[in-house]
Specification:
The protein is an all-alpha fold and 496 residues long. The chain contains 23 helices and no strands. α6 (118-134) packs antiparallel against α8 (145-172), α15 runs antiparallel to α16 (358-372) and α15 packs antiparallel against α21. The mean pLDDT is 84.
Length: 496
């Protein structure tokens, strides 16, 4: 089956030997059947206008993921109170949820997206997510902590499958120079979902309920299941262009004059490997902070769990604001610089939260959430820059790095049980420190390559209204060259 992906990736020779479809053909083809990852679809030069609708549809998935993630953190504190378990054991919820990321993306999820394309990966991920949501009903009825962990593992499997397709799809669907902006903006709506979840949890789901009452959990996830099954039907009929690894190989070659791109085997993609390590540690640290935020607030400010949930909602609101702010910054500032500045802010305020007490400590940790906002999507897009024909496989590895969220919360909770929640923030601090090294590496050793992709005009219209990088544009250039100079443009290197 070639489950680790090499057999589904094209060779450069076969990319350039086949017919090149136009971007109009990429939009007209519905592709409800599986799409060869080794074939060109014309999607390497999609314009902003062509990419708006599919990106909007996929952005809904980010909202769903954010809602599930935000609700998970509130459920963590709820289970600690209702089932009388320790902070370390409650971290098992994160272990189940994020542990699915370690298994799915590098194996079955990654294989599905390379073998059948983005559409069917979206549909499979939504269906698995729906099944996991339904499993919460019996888990709540029998008050089974193990059942909740199992349900969360299935939900995590579905969401990891969605992320294996959604993140690279957003990053590659449209002009390459806007890749970081697109993913940052789309994931801003994920942050909105994360804000809504704790608010609904404190104001609706668990309002006026006994501390041991988990009945509202089952109704919440039943509604989620119904919605995601409906969304799977929508994705079956939606016009979603397929972006293959062959398309990305062509695009990378077209940019080579600006970026210095040279095709390399995956084992030599060192920026990708560093990105995976940084993402693993960053996500683990982020989840460690989020999982203990409510209990940290109770300890620091001596407030109730409900009031702490409101503080967490404020922190998640800052997270959402940070994502929109970072997206705006990326239109005028290089993404590698934005990542460095935001990671610096994370390091400063996570250290401050360890020493600050009262509402000041809560404020420090809330500011950490603000600076965390842009890190995940920016690490993702900068890590897959220049992967070419390895884009989908490399993307699945970065998504698999989300499994860091399975390790850090339990370690943070273990320290919290023995030393308190302030000292426990040293665990996320270590993870953030590793992630902080990545933007330093990018800004010192990868600047030319990353800036080259930012300068490319592929996907933008020329003076004749043709999309630069598209076959129609190149045919027009060839025609003009033959008439005016009598030479073929194939004889000289052209970069866009």
């Amino acid at each position: 089956m070639g489950i680790f992906g090499a057999k589904e990736e094209p060779e450069l020779a076969e990319v350039f030997d086949q017919r090149r479809p136009s971007n109009v053909e990429a939009m007209n083809q519905q592709h409800r059947k599986s799409v060869s990852n080794r074939g060109l679809t014309g999607a390497s030069a999609l314009t902003v206008k062509q990419s708006i609708f599919p990106i909007t549809l996929v952005t809904i998935l980010f909202f769903l993921w954010g809602f599930a993630y935000g609700l998970l953190d509130v459920l963590n504190a709820k289970f600690q109170n209702s089932l009388g378990i320790t902070a370390a054991k409650a971290g098992g919820l994160q272990g189940a949820y994020f542990g699915a990321y370690l298994i799915g993306p590098p194996t079955y999820s990654g294989w599905i997206v390379r073998k059948f394309g983005y559409r069917w990966t979206f549909i499979v991920g939504l269906c698995v997510y729906g099944v996991g949501a339904l499993m919460f009903w019996p888990s709540a009825v029998y008050r089974s902590f193990g059942g909740f962990c199992g349900s969360l593992f299935i939900v995590g499997s579905g969401l990891s499958t969605l992320e294996t397709s959604a993140n690279p799809f957003i990053a590659t669907c449209g002009p390459p120079r806007l890749s970081e902006f697109r993913l940052e903006l789309s994931q801003s709506f994920q942050a909105i979902g994360s804000v809504m979840a704790p608010l609904l949890a404190s104001r609706v789901f668990f309002k006026n309920t006994e501390p041991t009452d988990l009945s509202n959990v089952q109704w919440t996830y039943l509604g989620i299941a119904a919605f995601v099954f409906l969304l799977a039907v929508v994705f079956y009929f939606a016009p979603i262009p397929e972006v293959t690894d062959a398309d990305m190989a062509l695009q990378a070659e077209q940019c080579s004059g600006l970026t210095g791109y040279v095709d390399k085997p995956l084992k030599k993609q060192f920026k990708l490997f560093f990105g995976v390590a940084a993402q693993f540690c960053y996500v683990g640290a982020q989840v460690g902070v989020a999982a203990q935020f409510i209990k940290y607030s109770v300890e620091s400010a001596n407030i109730s769990d409900a009031a702490a949930s409101d503080r967490y909602a404020i922190g998640q609101g800052l997270f959402a604001i940070g994502r929109f702010a970072a997206a705006g910054l990326m239109m005028v500032v290089k993404p590698r610089w934005v990542l460095l500045v935001f990671m610096t802010g994370v390091m400063i305020f996570i250290a401050a939260s360890m020493g600050a007490k009262g509402e000041g400590g809560v404020a420090m940790l809330s500011i950490v959430l603000f600076f965390e906002s842009c890190v995940f999507p920016t690490i993702f897009t900068l890590s897959i820059r220049g992967l070419g024909r390895h884009t989908k496989r490399g993307s699945s590895w970065i998504v698999a790095a989300v499994s860091g969220g399975a390790l850090f919360p339990s370690l943070t909770g273990l320290v919290a049980d023995h030393k308190g929640y302030h000292i426990a923030m040293c665990v996320p601090l270590i993870g953030f420190f590793v992630a902080f090294a990545f933007p330093i590496y990018l800004n010192t050793l990868c600047a030319k390559e990353l800036d080259g992709f930012r300068e490319t005009k592929i996907g933008y219209h020329d003076e004749d209204g043709l999309a630069i990088g598209d076959i129609k544009h190149e045919e027009r250039r060839a025609s003009v060259a033959n008439v005016e100079k009598g030479v073929s443009p194939l004889e000289k290197e052209v970069s866009y």
